[in-house]
Mannosyl-oligosaccharide glucosidase
Amino acid sequence: MRLLWFCIVVLFSSLLGTWGLTPSDQLLKERVEENTNSSLLWGTYRPNLYFGTRPRTPDSLMTGLMWFDASHFQGFQRMRHACEQGDGLAGYGYQKHDGRAFAKQHLNDEPSNVEITTEFIKVPGGKEGGDWGVRIHGKPIHSHLPAMTSVLFYFGLEGEGSMDITSRMSSKGLASPVKLEGDTPDLGDFEVEVIDGLLNDHPRQGLDQDLTKTQWVGLQVPEGNVWRAKEVLHEHMMQSARKKVQPGQEDDLFSHPHMYFTLENRLVEENDEIANLYAFQKVFNGEFQFDVIYRSTASNDAKLTSETLGEWLSVKEKDFDARFDATFGLKEKGFSQEQVQFGQSLLSNLVGGLGYFHGASVVDRSHPPMQDEESFAGEPIRAQLTSPQSLFTATPSRSFFPRGFYWDEGFHQMLLGNWDNDLSLNVIKSWVNAIDENGWVAREQILGDEARSKVPAEFQTQFPHYANPPTLYLAIKQYVDRLTSKHQTGKKQMAGLPINGQQVAMDLTLDDPHMTSMYLDHLALGQDWLNSVYPHLRRNWQWFRQTQRGHQDSFGRSPANNEAYRWRGRTPDHCLTSGLDDYPRGEPPNVGELHADLMSWMAFATQLLKDIATAIDVDGSLQQDIDEYTHIKKDMLANLDALHWSDVHQAYCDQTLNDEGYGVHVCHKGYLSLLPMALGLLPAESPKLGAILDMIENDEELWSPYGLRSLSKSDPFYNTGEVYWRGPIWININYLTLQGLYNNYLRTPGPYQEQAQTIYTQLRENLINNVYSGYKNTGYVFEQYNDNTGKGQRIHPFTGWTTLILLIMAEKY
Ligand SMILES: *[C@@H]1O[C@H](CO)[C@@H](O)[C@H](O)[C@H]1NC(C)=O
C-alpha cells in the first residue's frame, strides 16, 4: 500500500516537474537558474587578491594583478598580489560593488607611492558568462617622490583549454593593444585585449627591451599551481635581472631596477607542454591607466571596448548609488554624504569578499560519525584529504581569513540578503549542500592548496564531531520574514505566477533588475527554495541534537526534561567550537558541562525549522515535524531556565561539575548571557529580561561608550589571557543584541519596554560612531574594538560581520 502511494506521488510529481510548482513556475525557475548561472560565471572575484577574477568552475581561467615600485631596488621585494596585512597599505577595499556586474576599488599603497583604482564591469550575454573589462588607474601619492610603477597582469589556465598571443610577437615588447585568444570547456572561445591609456608615460631606456611597449612572457606552470603566479613571476624576473647584470656593473641594478626586473619577452615551453600562464608588464612614469577586456565569442551583442567600458562604468555607478539609497535609505535617516559612502564601502567589501572555493579539505574521519568524543578523547589525529568540494561563500577578511566560516556566514548573509536576496540564497544553498549525510558541516572550509596556504597546519584538520553556532539559521529567518511579510498569505495558499507567468519567464533578461529578488517576488519559487533546503537543515539540527547533547542524569540536577547541550571540542581555557574561543567556561573541561549559549542557539534553530515547515506544509504532511518542534522548543525553554538561570547571579550561566561531581553554575557575565534575549527567547514581561537589560546598561559590566563588551568588566577573567572574547567589542553580537531588542522588546508593551528603547538608541549610536570614526582615521574596519579606547584592533580589513554596521545604520533587523 505504501509503495503504491509512493509510486503515485512520484508519478504525480514528475508530471508537475518539481513538486509543488506549476508548469509556468517551473519554467520561471529554470530561466532564473540559467540566468544566475550565466551571470555568476564571472560574477565573483578572488577575494584574497588585490584584484583578480576566476570563474565559478575549478578548472578554468584565473587572472590577477601585481605591481611594484620600480624606482627602488627594494620595491621589487614588495611586489603586491595577494592582500597581506603586512603589506602596510594605508587602506584598501571596494567603494562600490554590486556583486554581479560592477565594482570599483581603491588601493592606497603608501609604501609604493601609488594609489590604484580598479573598476570592473561585466556585460552578460550568451551562456558562457559574457564579457568583462577592468580599468586600472594609478597615481603617485607624493608628487615630490620618485614615481615609477611596474604593473603586471596575468592569465593562467588550469585544466583543459589553451591560450595564445595573437599580437605580433617581438623580443623588444608588444605594441598596444596586446591580444590573446583562448578557449576552455566552460568559457568557450574568448579573446582578451590589454589596452594602454592615451596619456601614459613610459621610461625610454631598457636593456635590449623597449619599455614603452608591453613586456611579456608565456610560461608553463604545473597543474594546480597558477595561484602561485607571484612566486613564479617574481622568480622569473629575478633570473632575468641576474642575466642582465654585467660583471662590475652591479650598481646599475640598484640605480635602474626598472630595466632589470622585467619579463623576458619569450615563450618558455618545454617537453611538448604549452604555456598556461601569460603575463604582461608595463612600466610607467607617474600617473597611468590601462584596460583589460575579456570578450566571450558566444556573446554576439555589442562588444565591450575601451570606449563602451568607460560609458558602462558611469552608468553602473549611478545605478549602484540609486539602488543603494533605495535599499538602505541612509539619507532619510539623516546620515551625511560621507557616511553614506562609508555604508557603501561596508556593503561593497562584504560583496567583494565573495568567492568560489574548490578543492579537498583535511578531515579526521577515523571515528564513527555519531560517536561521542569521550570514547576517543586523547587519541592521535588521523587527518585525510577529502574528495574535492566546492563552496560559494563570503569571507571574514580578504587578507587574513579568505575562506568560509560557518559561524560567520549567517551574519554575512543577513547583510547580503538585504542587498541581493537571490545571490544570498545561492550562497546559503551552497553551504546547505555542504551539510553531509550525517548532518555535519565543517566549521572552517579550507578548500584547496591556495586556501590552505593561509592556515597553519595545526588548524587545518576538521572533526566531524565538532559544531559551531548555527548562524545560517539567522539569515534564513530574515529571508522567511521578508517572504512572509511580502506575501502575507495563509499557509494553505500557494500563490503561483500570474496568468502571464509564462511570459514573465520568457521576458527575463540577463540584466533584468528583478534578478536580485525573483525568490522574493514569486512565492512559489520561495517555497520551492525552502522545500529544497529544509531536509538538509533538519538533518543538521538532528546532528546537533545527537552529537552535542549534554549528559544530565547523574549529576544531581533537577531538569524539567531531557533537553541539554554541550559543545564538544573543549580544551582548557578554550571552547573554539562555540565561536567564543577563550570566553571563560568551567575548568577543567568535563563531561558534565552544559552550555547556555548552545541551548539558546538550539531553541532558536528549533523555532526556525518550525517556521519553515509551517510555510511549506501545503498538504499537512509536515504536521508531525511541526508538533515535534513545538514540543522540543517548549522543553528547551523550560530547561534553559531550570538548568541555566542563576538566581544568585541574576544571569544565564553554564554548568560545570563541583568537586563532589555535582552540577553547579559557572557564571561569567557577557555575550553568553545575552543570547537568550538577543535570540528573542524571553517573553517581554520576563524579569530575566529586566536583569539582562540591567547588566547591559551597567558601566561596570557590559556597557562601554563604543559598544557592548564581550565579558563583564567585573568578571575576574576580564582582559586576561589572550583578551580575545574577554572584553573587546565584537560587532556580530552587538548586532544580534540590537536585533533582539528591535524585533521583540522595543515595540512590545511590557515593564521593560522603555529601558529597551533607551538601550537600543544609545547602543546603536555608539556603535555607528565608533566604527565610522575608526574607518575615517585608518581606512579600515576591524575584527574587534577596544572597550577602553574604542580603537579597532587585530585583523584588518575585517569586512565580514563588522559590515553589519550598515544594517544597524539602516535599522534592518
Ligand atoms: C546551473 O549550474 C549548476 C551548477 O553548475 C548546474 O547543476 C545546473 O544544471 C545549471 N542550471 C542551468 C539551468 O543551467
Observations:
- Residues 753-778 form the longest helix (26 residues).
